[in-house]
């Protein structure tokens, strides 16, 4: 009997080959062939696999996470194979057949069966197969029975919490419900189940059973005796792996194996199966390391999903752990397919213990991991990081890896086995001990370090944080700490700020009044015993100018202030003062020495029990090291050491928060945005809006006045730099009025007031339900009206926290769908209104400080997805496997059509041939893939739903179905997209390759035409065919591995540039690294530039309600940087378009108009201005940032008109009263703002009037003089 195994399972090869020796010592009965699918195959290996399958009687397939080439070759070969196929993974589940049992037959049967049919409609033979228990009275009961009958364990696929494709176990279970077959089907199905159980628990007894079973039933050898299958373990049990013993209760384990003896209890969850690796040795090593300080209760999990949940709940409740360690590569109690997420979440909340998650490197040797820059690959990160993070897991530290590959002397197959990494085991154990101290140290003795930021360095930027008033938030935290018994002073936010300005600013521009703390360099080098780390820092930063915050003697200045058992410190900057640098987000460069000195002083001298980074975001998580699965040689891990790390992070930015979790072991605790309200038109804009309304009325009532009124409208619009076409003007004003504006900053722990909650609910209803999922029978505008009516039931002066249960009548009460929609929407509004008037920020923080569980919520845009709130929870990001969602596909198609239409309108109806698109990770997370779907639409590709494994999730639209020609693309990604969505990079590269291979004319498919031209040119230059195949179609570019941006923001901020060409050179050098399925960021000279020369327009989506393009420096970095680089490459300007997707209809406009809208809703909006100034120092910083962003947009797009700078200057500089307010609150940022506007004029970005320049120069001089004198009072004008 010939059996071929394709597997990722090293122990299978060992145990099966050993069992074969015992069963068939003379090699008369069995001929086994093994192939290791974890490696990238050679052509010879693929040929050998094909021959082996054709010659086999049975094929056993297991390629979960294996190289795609093995999978593709195997599937092709199976098309001509008629033997038995055994597989328990999604890759080949549709090919399974054993005797009369066949997944293909089952699938055909289910398609003919009513999924809602009752048991009585099932064939009689199915009833007898499944039995006649009371639980099987319906399809649900049948499926539950089938799940027990065929326990398939497969790759991570869809689940109840992630939705999407039907794959693996879900598909297998579903097929059973419609089968019409003889009892032989059930007999073979049960055999398939028994073989699967043996496969996933493979040791010597299981291997013996597996082979004897196949020989007896399928190999024509009935004389071979089949042993009784090895006894299955309970779904969850206390399992001591030395020797292997299992107990049904924790008490029995305590009596027979180990007792607490006063040690805190730690539960260790691990897989009791041997598939895909045997982890027993790792469990033993970890328990040995922890035994001195903890009572470890090892719980073995052998069943996936809900089958183990009840047993696990019982054991966890009995153990009552202080900490849970989960070695599973998926959610606790969920299994690889998700399971009952709600029940498992409730269980973890009730146990209330933090969850630490050591990593098992089942695809890497220790050497490979040490040498890797990336850490885990995408598929491993998906299972080992993304899923556990949904439970709020932390400390993702590798503790085990595979041995170096060795050839099995029996089979000839090269395999590895899993072994612990002793140094990493101890590293993890130290973090366990640090975490346990939080739950055992009394509050009066606990020491806490609050860390803020001030980059770019200087007084003006002190205590930055996205949407957070950091000084007031720190003060609020200290008050709450004092209230709960922690020993701390309680300064006001302003006093805290004054204390820091006096002695704790990085590289202050002006002298400080209090001598700062210092730390001897020699002591730092001794206290951080990493000689190679110090050497790398000194080599990277060799000159004194590269080493800020040092004394003349070379010792380190420590910017920090003590408040009893609480320290407030300022994180060092990454680069030297006022120098252009990309260090901020560069994970390939070590920090300067004082940076390491600061964290070493913190851990070794001040010795906190916990470090809290306050606000989004700092730079610790971006220090040199791996992208994930960090080692002790990675600076984030090295500097955070054993100290528990809490990170107060904005709920809308889970994508970047994951960097802190994965690289710096942070427990994320989210905070909410400030209230967001529609823009209120005032002044001349309000007058123009009223004038338009008067004109519209006059057309009907007094037509004789219409012409004059229309002329006035045109005149006012021209004066206000708005469109003069009336329809266009009304759209512009309407969109401005509907635009949501963040009002001020959030203070930690403060919930929305009833009035603010109503504003947020309105915004969520009008801006968040683009697909009508709240009430499909209602249009978005109708939804907004219903919510408005519900919210109107409470007056603005009311202090009610809930809305009265009044009915909202639909227009047509006879329409049942409409009635249900209105009722549901009214209920949704009431519940959301009540929910938004509290948050969990304070309790979430103290859960973290006291060593308790911080449960996780999905992060993202709270307007688009209100389930992000309430804040105060850990964060996880949207499942990247679901990108793009159906709604994102529709809106992405709209974006593509709008962009192409805008181009045609300005180019005599001609279609664009190439569009450069900016693709961000944060935008992809928040919109579930709008820009990604735009790219697919441009290429003439449609996304497929529902998604199925083993098949592409897309298809090319035939040319005869296209509504317009395909458009070539140049996609520029950021580093966050690269790290979080590498699966989409692979998919998009496959799509580009497929579109490029189409035999279509150039006017229909410019991508294919240019790819052919590129390939021909490369051949003529002597390039090898493999390189041509890899690069001729390549269209995805971004920063090199380890870097996240282009550095353009730092260059503009520092002023270290002379011309737009300098900016273009910097952008293309940083962003010109190519990404394909097999190329991770290499640089090919001239390739990016050659692509940019073909570009007709640049496109970016503005999807965030929080940020206009003037609010965020990354817009001028990417949108402006890309547009400027195209202009430099082509030698001519091209359209730069922004598509706003924050409202129900997408809207495409020029970058200049988008910037103007940003000004009108932010910098020139009195409501926004006053809300910011209410936050004092920090509010002025926010105003100054937007002026810098305006300069950046002017430098990179050449579409910022003089009037924009004029009005900013009129608003903030020409008004003496405003200048006095700003100088009192934050003279440093006011001085920077004035200097930035002078710079804009000097660079010819703004043609400033002589009067404006005189005032700016005068203000700059007076501010500098007053700051030098140590006073904030100025005589102006």
UniProtKB/TrEMBL annotation:
Region entry Disordered, spans? 794-815
- Polar residues: which segments have biased composition? 795-804
Q: Where is the CobN/magnesium chelatase domain?
A: 226-1252
Its domain of life reads: Bacteria
Q: Which residues form the signal peptide?
A: none
Extract the InterPro entries matched here.
CobN/Mg_chltase
What is an example of a Pfam family matching this protein? CobN-Mg_chel
- Output this protein's name: Cobalamin biosynthesis protein CobN
Per the UniProt entry, what species is this protein from, by scientific name? Cutibacterium acnes
């Amino acid at each position: 009997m010939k059996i071929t195994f394709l597997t990722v399972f090293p122990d299978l090869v060992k145990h099966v080959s050993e069992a074969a020796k015992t069963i068939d010592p003379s090699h008369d009965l069995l001929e086994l062939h093994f192939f290791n699918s974890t490696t990238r195959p050679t052509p010879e290996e693929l040929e050998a696999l094909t021959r082996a399958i054709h010659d086999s009687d049975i094929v056993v397939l297991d390629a979960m996470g294996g190289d795609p080439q093995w999978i593709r070759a195997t599937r092709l070969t199976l098309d001509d194979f008629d033997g038995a196929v055994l597989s328990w993974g999604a890759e080949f589940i549709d090919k399974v057949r054993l005797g009369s049992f066949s997944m293909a037959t089952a699938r055909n049967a289910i398609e003919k069966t009513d999924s809602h049919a009752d048991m009585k409609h099932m064939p009689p033979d199915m009833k007898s197969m499944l039995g006649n228990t009371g639980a099987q009275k319906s399809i649900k009961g049948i499926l539950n029975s089938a799940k027990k009958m065929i326990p398939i364990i497969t790759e991570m696929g869809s689940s109840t919490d992630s939705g999407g494709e039907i794959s693996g176990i879900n598909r297998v279970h579903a097929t059973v419900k419609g089968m019409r077959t003889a009892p032989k089907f059930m007999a073979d199905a049960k055999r398939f189940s028994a073989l699967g159980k043996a496969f996933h628990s493979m040791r010597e007894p299981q291997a013996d059973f597996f082979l004897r079973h196949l020989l007896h039933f399928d190999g024509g050898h009935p004389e071979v005796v089949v042993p009784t299958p090895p006894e299955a373990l309970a779904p969850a049990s206390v399992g001591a792996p030395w020797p292997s013993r299992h107990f049904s209760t924790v008490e029995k384990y305590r009596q027979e194996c180990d007792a607490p003896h006063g040690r805190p209890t730690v539960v260790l969850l691990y897989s009791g199966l041997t598939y895909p690796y045997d982890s027993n040795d790792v469990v033993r090593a970890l328990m040995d390391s922890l035994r001195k300080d903890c009572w470890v209760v090892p719980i073995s999990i052998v069943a996936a999903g809900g089958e183990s949940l009840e047993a696990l709940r019982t054991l966890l409740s009995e153990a009552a752990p202080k900490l849970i360690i989960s070695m599973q590569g998926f959610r606790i109690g969920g299994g690889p397919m998700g399971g009952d997420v709600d029940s498992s979440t409730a269980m973890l909340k009730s146990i209330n213990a933090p969850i630490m998650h050591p990593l098992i490197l089942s695809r890497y040797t220790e050497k490979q991991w040490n040498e890797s820059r990336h850490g885990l690959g995408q598929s491993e990160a998906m299972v080992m990081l993304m899923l556990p993070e949904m439970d709020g897991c932390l400390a993702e530290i590798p503790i085990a890896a595979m041995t170096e590959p060795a050839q099995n002397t029996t089979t000839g197959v090269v395999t590895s086995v899993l072994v612990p990494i002793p140094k990493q085991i101890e590293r993890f154990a130290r973090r366990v001990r640090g975490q346990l101290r939080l739950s055992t140290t009394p509050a009066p003795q606990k020491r806490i370090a609050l860390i803020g930021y001030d980059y770019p360095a200087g007084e003006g930027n002190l205590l930055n944080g996205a949407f957070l008033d950091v000084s007031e938030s720190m003060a609020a935290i200290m008050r709450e700490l004092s209230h709960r018994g922690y020993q701390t002073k309680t300064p006001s936010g302003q006093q805290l700020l004054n204390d820091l300005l006096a002695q704790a600013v990085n590289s202050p521009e002006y002298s400080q009044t209090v001598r700062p703390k210092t730390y001897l360099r020699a002591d730092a080098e001794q206290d951080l015993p990493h000689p190679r780390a110090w050497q790398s820092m000194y080599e990277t930063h060799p000159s004194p100018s590269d080493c800020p915050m040092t004394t003349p003697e070379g010792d380190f200045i420590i910017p920090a202030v003590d408040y009893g058992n609480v320290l407030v410190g300022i994180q060092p900057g990454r680069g030297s003062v006022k120098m252009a640098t990309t260090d901020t987000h560069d994970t390939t460069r070590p920090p300067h020495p004082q940076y390491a000195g600061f964290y070493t002083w913190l851990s070794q001298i001040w010795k906190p029990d916990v470090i809290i980074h306050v606000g989004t975001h700092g730079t610790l998580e971006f220090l040199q090291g791996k992208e994930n699965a960090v080692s002790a040689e990675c600076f984030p891990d090295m500097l955070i050491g054993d100290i528990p790390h809490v990170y107060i992070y904005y709920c809308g930015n889970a994508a970047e928060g994951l960097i802190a979790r994965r690289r710096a072991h942070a427990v994320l605790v989210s905070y909410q945005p400030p209230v967001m309200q529609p823009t209120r038109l005032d002044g001349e804009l309000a007058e123009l809006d009223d004038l338009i309304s008067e004109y519209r009325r006059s057309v009907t009532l007094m037509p004789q006045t219409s012409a004059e009124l229309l002329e006035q409208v045109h005149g006012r619009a021209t004066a206000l730099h708005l469109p003069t076409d009336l329809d266009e003007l009304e759209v512009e004003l309407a969109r401005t009025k509907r635009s949501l504006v963040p009002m001020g900053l959030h203070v930690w722990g403060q919930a929305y007031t009833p009035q603010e909650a109503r504003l947020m609910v309105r915004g969520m209803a009008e801006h968040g339900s683009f697909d009508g999922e709240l009430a499909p029978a209602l249009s978005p505008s109708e939804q907004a009206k219903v919510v408005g009516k519900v919210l109107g039931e409470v007056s603005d002066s009311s202090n009610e926290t809930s809305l009265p249960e009044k009915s909202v009548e639909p227009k047509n009460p006879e329409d049942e769908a409409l009635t249900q929609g209105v009722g549901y929407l009214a209920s949704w509004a009431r519940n959301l209104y009540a929910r938004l008037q509290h948050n969990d920020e304070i309790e979430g923080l103290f859960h973290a400080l006291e060593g308790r569980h911080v449960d996780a919520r999905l992060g993202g845009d709270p307007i688009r997805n209100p389930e992000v709130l309430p804040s105060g929870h850990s964060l996880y990001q949207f499942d990247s496997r679901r990108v793009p969602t159906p709604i994102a596909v529709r809106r992405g198609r709209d974006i593509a059509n709008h962009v192409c239409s805008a181009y045609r309108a300005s180019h005599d109806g001609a279609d664009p041939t190439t569009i450069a698109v900016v693709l961000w990770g944060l935008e992809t997370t928040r919109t579930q893939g709008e820009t990604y779907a735009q790219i697919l639409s441009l290429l003439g590709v449609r996304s497929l739903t529902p998604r199925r494994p083993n098949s592409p999730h897309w298809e090319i639209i035939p040319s005869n179905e296209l509504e317009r020609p395909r458009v070539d693309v140049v996609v520029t990604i950021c580093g966050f997209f690269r790290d979080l969505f590498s699966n989409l990079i692979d998919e998009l590269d496959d799509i580009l390759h497929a579109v490029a291979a189409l035999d279509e004319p150039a006017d229909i498919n410019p991508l294919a035409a240019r790819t052919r031209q590129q390939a021909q040119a490369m051949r003529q230059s002597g390039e090898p065919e493999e390189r041509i195949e890899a690069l001729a179609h390549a269209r995805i570019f971004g920063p090199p591995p380890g870097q996240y941006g282009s550095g353009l923001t730092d260059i503009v901020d520092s002023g270290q540039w002379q011309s737009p060409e300098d900016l273009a050179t910097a952008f293309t050098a940083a962003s010109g690294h190519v990404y394909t399925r097999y190329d991770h960021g290499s640089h090919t000279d001239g390739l990016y530039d050659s692509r940019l020369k073909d570009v007709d327009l640049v496109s970016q989506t503005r999807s965030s309600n929080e940020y206009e393009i003037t609010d965020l420096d990354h817009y001028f970095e990417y949108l402006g940087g890309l547009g400027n680089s195209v202009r430099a490459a082509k030698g001519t300007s091209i359209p730069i378009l922004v598509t706003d997707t924050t409202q129900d209809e997408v809207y495409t406009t020029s970058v200049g108009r988008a910037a103007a809208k940003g000004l009108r809703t932010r910098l020139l909006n009195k409501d926004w201005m006053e809300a910011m100034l209410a936050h004092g120092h920090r509010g002025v910083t926010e105003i100054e940032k937007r002026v810098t962003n305006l300069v950046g947009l002017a430098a990179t797009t050449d579409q910022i008109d003089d009037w924009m700078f004029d009005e900013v200057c009129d608003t903030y500089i020409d008004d003496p009263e405003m200048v006095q307010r700003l100088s009192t609150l934050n003279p440093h940022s006011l001085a920077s703002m004035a200097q930035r506007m002078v710079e804009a004029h000097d660079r010819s970005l703004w043609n400033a009037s002589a009067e404006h320049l005189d005032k700016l120069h005068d203000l700059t001089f007076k501010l500098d003089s007053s700051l030098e004198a140590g006073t904030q009072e100025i005589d102006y004008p």
